[in-house]
UniProtKB/TrEMBL annotation:
HAMAP family: PRAI. It comes from Novosphingobium guangzhouense. Pfam families: PRAI (PF00697). Its EC number is 5.3.1.24. The keyword Transcription does not apply. The keyword ATP-binding does not apply. Belongs to the TrpF family. GO terms for biological process: L-tryptophan biosynthetic process. This is N-(5'-phosphoribosyl)anthranilate isomerase. It catalyses: N-(5-phospho-beta-D-ribosyl)anthranilate = 1-(2-carboxyphenylamino)-1-deoxy-D-ribulose 5-phosphate.
């Protein structure tokens, strides 16, 4: 099985960025959602982005964002991809991909097989779907450390690239990859010591656990 690519989401400091790079993660995520404990402004992301340039991919995470925020963030942080983590439709995903000319990742919240089936509608509109856990109403739509039944996406063969998120941490990520065969894993709270506080040792342990099953 090829090694799964790693994305460390919710990076807001230079130290955590460097830890992700040392761990040979493929991508980091910058959260542009004000209610998140991991939120960064376009200006903060721009500084991190300068440091990341050419060393790791930079994914901007948005929740039903308006065009002004998207344009600010893409321009300031020179993002390599957009991750849409709200209720963005296939039409909106396609519109943003055309406007900004960078890949679009669509996060889909999963609790049942029907949620996974929604991925098909994003073929041709997004470049990748990220299956994540459904979170309780009134909470954040991601980054909550919740997982879902991995069997629902085991060996998923859909019309676009995909990845797995939701409650992944150093202790369970190897098993998640074995069960699902996912080509990409995404974590945020699983490599933190408190909400929004990345832990460099946990980032290293997560990356090592992913490589342990190559
Ligand atoms: O991280 C946040 O605060 C956040 C806020 C709003 C939407 C999505 C958010 N995070 C998404 C992610 O970091 C991951 O893509 C995914 O949800 C996994 O998070 P976790 O379960 O904490 O590993």
């Amino acid at each position: 099985m090829p090694t799964a690519a790693i994305k460390i989401c919710g990076i807001s400091t230079g130290d955590s960025l460097e830890a992700a790079i040392r761990g040979r993660a493929a991508h980091v995520g910058f959260v542009f959602f004000a209610r998140s404990p991991r939120a960064v402004s376009p200006a903060q992301a721009a500084q991190l982005s300068d440091r990341a340039a050419g060393r790791i991919g930079r994914v901007g995470l948005f929740v039903d964002a308006d065009d002004a925020l998207l344009a600010d963030a893409v321009g300031a942080a020179r993002l390599d991809a957009l991750q849409l983590h709200g209720s963005e439709t296939p039409e909106r995903a396609a519109q943003l991909r055309a406007r900004f000319g960078i890949p679009v990742w669509k996060a889909l919240s999963v609790a049942a097989a029907a949620d996974v089936a929604r991925a098909d509608a994003y073929a041709g509109a997004a470049d990748l779907v990220l299956f994540d856990a459904k979170t309780p109403k009134g909470t954040l739509p991601g980054g909550m450390g919740l997982s879902f039944d991995w069997g629902l996406v085991a060996n998923w063969k859909g019309p676009l690239a995909w990845g797995l998120a939701g409650g992944l941490d150093p202790a369970n990520v190897a098993e998640a990859i074995r069960v699902t065969g996912t080509p990409l894993v995404d974590t945020s709270s699983g490599v933190e010591s408190a909400p929004g506080v990345k832990d460099e040792e946990r980032i290293a342990a997560f990356c090592a656990a992913v490589r342990s099953i190559a």
